[in-house]
Amino acid sequence: xxxxxxxxxxxxxxxxxxxxxxxxxxxxxxxxxxxxxxxxxxxxxxxxxxxxxxxxxxxxxxxxxxxxxxxxxxxxxxxxxxxxxxxxxxxxxxxxxxxxxxxxxxxxxxxxxxxxxxxxxxxxxxxxxxxxxxxxxxxxxxxxxxxxxxxxxxxxxxxxxxxxxxxxxxxxxxxxxxxxxxxxxxxxxxxxxxxxxxxxxxxxxxxxxxxxxxxxxxxxxxxxxxxxxxxxxxxxxxxxxxxxxxxxxxxxxxxxxxxxxxxxxxxxxxxxxxxxxxxxxxxxxxxxxxxxxxxxxxxxxxxxxxxx
Length: 308
Ligand SMILES: [Mn+2]
Fold this sequence. Notes:
It is built from 9 helices and 12 strands. It is α/β, with parallel strands linked by helices and 308 residues long. The protein has one domain (7-280): Metallo-dependent phosphatases (Purple Acid Phosphatase, chain A, domain 2, 4-Layer Sandwich). Residues 76-77, 116-118, 153, 155, 237 line the site of manganese (II) ion. The site of manganese (II) ion (MN) has 8 residues, from loops.
């Protein structure tokens, strides 16, 4: 159980943080005033991997503070129990994310949490509600324009994809190593004033095997959705945000993957009219910074013109 992971280490992590007393606690990164948030009907996020150094907590906090929705799905691997079991790592920013999610539930956002394979210890609570959060093994989501989507983490298909479970662990170790590398590269890039660089984005285009694996995975998941008679599927797990349209027995099946917050930093959103979109948050942040810079330039020019 989760208690085992934290017992003895509780409150003695690197930063000395512990789980906060929610009602009295304020996050270490303060929440900005709730103005100008982009409002969506639905938001899907997954593969946050809280409890690991790979988690891009600051970017996720920026995302959560910039958007709002009626419903939010946490599509698995939110907390990384595998890593926490080996080494307890829980900085304040990770508390801040939990705080923000609980706060959303309190404000009336419907939150559905579908545990993944890294947080499978929560699967035993499927069907229960905690702090306004519904824990489910999978869910069905009806879009505003009447499509029915199956929502699940996606590790259910590993057995089809990989013949042995140990392969998943080898893959995991390799992945952690690569992410460590990617993290270091980005620390240096930030220091040099260069934009965020995504390893998996490059890998997806450069590594043939990865492309084949991902392509096959997407097909397998879409076929399973078609067999369930739904219009599409939303999943996470493989850390590759993607939309693909498949045809199965003359019927369209949508495949949506909401990506991850380890290095892609993506979310899937449904607009009020049912239109869906994958947001690549580093790009959204860059766009926002550019808009702010343009506004500032415009404002300066106006002042100069006024003074002349
Ligand atoms: Mn997973």
